[in-house]
């Protein structure tokens, strides 16, 4: 829970860049952070958003580790090249986005990496924002082994035929029947990607397949309302949503 720690407790953390095996055994960079101590700790895979494998996601990884989680953020953009996060993200956008297949493979590799650590408790969740929220839901539907998933305002989960590409040929909503773990959705009611109507459609499909899910929708918030470095930030809604995320992962990743 947020800000719930004793001021006389020891606290330590390790964060570093680690190369792991991703999709098809490709070597990819990941950012890994973990609390110091023998654990065991639950794990979380963070899927970066279209602004790139950036500083926000490094900070978010460390936030999870400060709350007692092993965290890993794979560079799902690595195959388009290297440079600053903005430069690489621009290359990815110009190519129509990263292929869904490689993201699924990279996140599966990240999950296996966390699960094999000697201080893991064997449970791993996945979370992403924006395009990473779309990918978080997609991975949870296509890859087995995750224990909980969080989709933060993932656009194009519900997608028209015109929005599909060779790299992203299937709308994630069409994989809903394969969702293999509980899902938490975080959305802003002022967002248009996804719009409230698209969130409704997503919820209808989850109900149709009897999936375990919870959606939280925030008035006065639009797309990216966690992003404190932008004018989209809405602190009250963001902190309430963070509390919901910690409660959700705590329930599904820390329990026996």
List the helices and strands and how they pair.
Blueprint lengths: L12 E9 L5 E9 L5 E7 L7 H12 L3 E5 L10 H10 L5 H17 L3 E10 L1 H12 L5 E5 L30 E6 L7 H13 L4 E6 L16 H19 L3
Helix pairs in contact: 3-4
Features:
single chain; 256 residues; alpha/beta; Rossmann fold; 8 strands; 32% helix; 22% strand
What would you report as the Rg, rounded to the nearest angstrom?
Answer: 17 Å
Named at the architecture level, the CATH assignment is 3-Layer(aba) Sandwich
Mean pLDDT: 96
CATH topology assignment: Rossmann fold
Percentage of residues assigned to helices? 25-40%
What's the quick description here?
The protein has 256 residues and is of the alpha/beta class. The protein is built from six helices and eight strands; from the N terminus they run βββαβααβαββαβα.
Description:
With 256 residues, the protein is an alpha/beta fold. The protein contains six helices and eight strands. It has helices spanning 55-66, 85-94, 100-116, 131-142, 196-208, 235-253, and strands at 13-21, 27-35, 41-47, 70-74, 120-129, 148-152, 183-188, 213-218. The protein has an eight-stranded mixed beta sheet with strand order 1-2-4-3-5-6-7-8, with helices on both faces.
